[in-house]
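QA checklist item 7 of 12: single-chain prediction sanity check.
[x] sequence parsed
[x] length recorded as 148
[x] structure emitted
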Amino acid sequence: MSEIDLTAALTRLEAAMGALRGRLRERLSVSGSDLTVLQFVARAAAAERRVRVKDLVSHLGLTGPAITGTVDRLERAGHLCRVPNPDDGRSRFIELTPETQRAYAVAMDSTNEHLHELLSSFSERESDRYVRVIDRVVEALEHGAPTP
């Protein structure tokens, strides 16, 4: 396989991810940055993990006030809700509202099912290699980005 084949595969992957994000943005009526927050919360819920503001700060690399503002906006729009953390009365978890969970699931149609089927077919060694390759691609993309 040549470098041009690999580049073409990355281009197809980028186009498919863009189309998926477009479907999700349209279905949920949110901006791209808001969608990133909703996707993080949805993926965490699927993995049975709870999300706090500080998790979003770490994931998105934004400031606490910026994330809090985004969460506030998405909460007012009916996409997110805050629920008490039973282990720490001072903090709250962030969850998708039931309506947004349903809309997200419909917008994802069978995408998650197909991805789960594909990824579960990988051996542990293949999964490890896949993650390493993705990490290398991400690193190359980040280092190739122009500095502000």
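[x] summary fact logged: The longest strand covers residues 88-96.
[ ] second reviewer sign-off
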